[in-house]
Amino acid sequence: MSTELMIAILASTAAAATPLVYAALGELVTERAGVLNLGLEGMMLVGAIVGFAGAVTTGNLMLGFIAGITGGMAMALIFAVLTISLQTNQVATGLALTLFGLGLSAFIGRAYIGVSLDGLKPLAIPLVSDIPLLGPLLATFDLLIYGSFVLLAAVYWFLTRTRPGLMLRAVGEAPAAAHAIGRSVLGVRYLAVLFGGAMSGLGGAYLALAITPMWVEGMTAGRGWIALALVVFATWKPMRVLLGAYLFGGVTILQFHSQALGIKVPAEFLSMLPYLATIICWC
Amino acid sequence: MLRLEPRPEPSRQMMFASPLMAAVLMLVSGYVIFSIMGQPPLYAFYIFFIDPLTSLYGIGEWLLKATPLILCGIGLAIGFRARVWNIGADGQLTIGAIAGGGVALYFQGVNAFWLLPLVLLAGVAGGMAWAAVPAFLRTRFNTSEILVSLMLVYVSYLLLRYLVNGPWRDPFGFNFPQSAMFHEAAMLPLLFDGLRTNAAFILALLLVVLAWFFCQKMTAGFRMQVSGEAPAAAAYAGFSDKRNVWLALLISGGSAGLAGVAEVAGPLGQLQPAVSSGYGFAAIIVAFVGRLHPLGVLLASLLMSLLYLGGEAAQLELGLPSAITGLFQGLLLFYLLAADLFIHFRLKKVQPPAAEAPATSSTTSPSEAV
């Protein structure tokens, strides 16, 4: 295999993995606080279209990403009000959030079909491409790929090294005890769900602003569910989320390089791999 | 000050009132959405909810679109009663269409009375086989059926796309990704001249009656309900959890498979790259709005089918995006979940309490109400 092909494969693996990293890390924090939000797919879709619309309207990609985060948070807020304040069933509400997100994003997105914009460019860090071995690969990374590493470190540090992180875990594992020492269980859960929404929204926006970059109805194609599976696959540990996401990213992009790699299997079957891998991981 | 307080026992009135409240709230939101989009809301309502039913043809379409929703919704409702969350009905529907369609294509040109029953049975079997995967993984490895059934939806879409693009593509179809049209003997007979409603609607009504009988009169149905509502009691009574999971998934998979084959042996008449218009997902809403009761599912399917028709009409007449259907569907489910709160709680006027009562909500798991 040539070096260029190898770099192309690794670079697209990183790009495919990044939305999963964001969404899964967000969901990890949510679940650590004791809430299961099955609505990732819906939040990602809304993040994708709101982010795309934001970027097209303002002409600024960064504002687009912020819009995507806001869209995801707005969806998460609906979920939080229903499940935390109104005590609705988490499974049913999460499903409702996904269905609602599908409908809402398609509804908003009608005006943006066929609109294109310049996607996120690789971050030009001076001298980075001169690093031996890794240099050419790192030169293809954009701001949000680097951002996902920072987020990983931040989530790890927050959960294991800070008092609020400890509090969040206490709320998830022993809500009665956390309540007894005077912490607001509901408040912590609200924040955790909102953070999950923000990260899903950002992951969705990354799909629409960096990977494709355009809006297609239902463009997340199950990535929200894959991210959800990743959290379980990673046994709620941030580091393993990254590992899992890159594994899935690799499987996802296999289809695009199958010809170059000499794999003679219909594209549809290669596209099935991430979904099948998710099932196998979950077992 | 108003406060929520738990009712001593769940309110039956609210059980039935909450879907109506949800529907009304959905209409109110619709009013707001139409206004925002610059449509006169009352006229938009007329186009959306009444105009589709003003012609005989429209009523035929209404029943036609309700059919897959009834079929999928009934099966899902039976599973949800046992708290088995099969959300992959759309995949089971697709596989049902593939299996039934495969039989129809295999016997292309055979003009025999047994062909249609065989096609339908193949569809049911296909749906069941697809649902057997999550059932097996759940009972063997305790894998979440939610995730597995949903992942298999995407796999089924890809399988169908592969088949209509490759081996099953119509050789005389000008390279369109679709199969040959089925022979008439493999097609469901139409019920009325000039309408597209077919015999599947009768099958769906039969299934409603069967499901009612199963849930209300049969021990197996009772067992499933007990396992869902009171798992500890069910375990104490020695009801097998595995049996329930298998039953729930096979029933919901089989009926979704029937819905799929009824689409291809009905209005479509061939396999196409996408045979479902999200019926399997809309059926989740149908099951909840129908209170997991067969008759409720029938009514909810008719409402949901009207949303589909209304969305199409709104697109044609008002130039509104048809995605508005999905928006209404999602809103309906949200409002239902929120309104269901009042089954178990009621609003009560209280004096501001001197000492804050411990928040029970923080420690309990999500409410059992669905």
Automatic annotation (TrEMBL), chain B:
Transmembrane segments: 20-50, 62-80, 87-107, 113-137, 146-164, 197-215, 245-265, 323-343
Keywords, ordered alphabetically: Cell membrane, Membrane, Transmembrane, Transmembrane helix
Pfam families: BPD_transp_2 (PF02653)
Bilayer topology: Multi-pass membrane protein
UniProt-listed InterPro entries: ABC_transp_permease (IPR001851)
GO cellular component labels: plasma membrane
Protein name: Sugar ABC transporter permease
PANTHER family: ABC TRANSPORTER, PERMEASE PROTEIN, GUANOSINE ABC TRANSPORTER PERMEASE PROTEIN NUPP
GO molecular function, one term: transmembrane transporter activity
Protein location: Cell inner membrane
Taxonomic classification: Bacteria, Pseudomonadati, Pseudomonadota, Gammaproteobacteria, Chromatiales
Domain of life the protein comes from: Bacteria
Primary site of residence: membrane
Source species of the chain: Alkalilimnicola ehrlichii
